Amino acid sequence: MIDFKDEIAKKLKKVTNIEEIESYIEIPSNKEMGDYSLPCFKLAKELRKAPQMIANELKEKITLDENIISKVEVVNGYLNFYINPIAVIKTVFEEINDKKEQYGSSEIGKGKNIVVEYSSPNIAKPFHIGHLRTTLIGSALYKIYKYLGYNTIGVNHLGDYGTQFGKMIEAYKMWGNEYDLTVDPINKMVDMYVRINDLCKKDETVLEKCRENFRLLEAGDKYCTDLWNKFKDLSMQEFNKIYNILDVKFDSYNGEAFYADKMDYIIKTLESKGVVTESEGAKIVDLSDMGISTPCIIQKTNGSSIYATRDLAAIVYRAKTYDFDKCLYVVAYEQNLHFKQVFAVAKYLVDEKYINGLKHVAFGMVSLPSGKMSTRLGNVVKIEDLLNKTIEEAKEIIEEKNPDLEDKDEVAKKVGIGAIVFNTLSTSNIKDQVFDWNTALNFNGETGPYLQYMYVRTNSVLEKVGKIPDLKDVDVNVLSDDASVKLVKELYDFNNIIMQSADKNEPYIITKYLVNVAKLFSTFYNENKIITDDKNLQNARAYLTYCVNIVLKSGAKLLGIQMPNKM
Questions:
Q1: Is residue 69 within 8 Å of residue 8, measured between CB atoms?
Q2: Residue-range definition of the domain harbouring residue 30
Q3: Domain identity same for 307 and 208
Q4: φ/ψ of residue 128, rounded to 5
Q5: CATH code of the domain in which 211 resides
Q6: What sections of 402-507 are H helices per DSSP?
Q7: Across-strand partners of 368?
Q8: Higher pLDDT, residue 473 or 219
Q9: How far apart are CA 409 and CA 39, in angstroms?
Q10: Is the overall model pTM greater than 0.90, yes or no?
Q11: Cβ-count burial of 204 within 10 angstroms (0-12 exposed, 13-18 middle, 19+ buried)?
């Protein structure tokens, strides 16, 4: 595939002798200002000339190859390049013909390891919409990095350790005979947790028993360990139902408990480095010299571990096991301080190359219109309920609009889940989201169902054409209209969009891009008759439709959205 930016950079290097000139080249936000642009302000200091003068001089010196660059213009110190539309169409068509559903993929990550930690629900608690963003953002990043050739390791760092399990054990001791955990186990465990939590607030002796249970669990007590394993197994059975529906996968389920026997090493190593001090009986690492005023606690006053210590043990383990280039933590921004502390302390435990690869991919919180959710208060919307309701809503709409559609249940499932995934990934990670049923279930506008509908339209067109034309029978020169050219140029950007999404760890960049592709295809479809007596024109437009079909399906797959063939 021709890299037009690289072609422009080669020409600029010849007349500027600036090796890094490619890094200065931008894609204008206003497409009327060219396909690529060189802001000459960046060269003014080095060349000691006004930007406008630099731009004019470069324009005169550059030798154009009109088969690639159709024209160059100077506008207010910018040197704007316009790519020959036929060259774009040729390179897109040839690349899609060659790579098909792998179009946009690359081997840029070959030989590099990326660890992505995401989802990480707490055992014995419901999988609610508060877990939706970490699960779907992380799953999308996992797929995106794989698509770029990285060896990607998805980690579900389960919340399977801590004082709350001391509470669950005590609740089971007190009320276990009241609950049949073979049916609807999560809700029953939540009920026990809410009850014991309320009792702990009223009775300090009960809270102390819970703390003692956790100490016994850490010490390997058989009763506590067996009960903890029971809670974990029942929870994972429920969680896996959700993961299967959402097509979310992991390579490791090593949660906090996995690192229980690895924490002594962390504490002893930090002590040997002379960075551990005691504060009110707890062991801490002072980070004030790194600009972090709050110290990192690595052991509680009662000798119990804390999740910071387990995260440090996980970093050491992942460095040794995976030799990662990046280790991403898809966790809400409420944990910003925690990760600053952990990453700072990790400098005493692993090589600098691993420290540089640690990244907290923070995201905003999800709340209900009525306010923040809380497991302790029982104020949550479970993902299973959300999925079921959305699928039911999708089926009702399908029954109304296309009652004779085959496989309505399967289509409703894809449409409903697509609506949820799109809604979740439609904004920048860091923005808070108020979960509103009406928004999530809206099947109009910039939504998952809209993308699916436009994909189905491409299928319908190709079905009427009869077959995808052979590329050798496609005359790209007939695709000269504005709608066709804009659409092809958008398709050309697919790999660049995926690269941006990975670079910024923002799946919404792909979501936004796919909406643009769908809108441009809609314009192309409305302005151009695809089925026509002119077979030359039909072949070209049908092949362009096929290219849109490929990009919509491949892009949606990276997000976790499945495309139905009909709706």
A1: yes
A2: 4-83
A3: yes
A4: -110, 180
A5: 3.40.50.620
A6: 408-424, 437-440, 448-465, 482-492, 494-504
A7: 371
A8: 473
A9: 53
A10: yes
A11: exposed
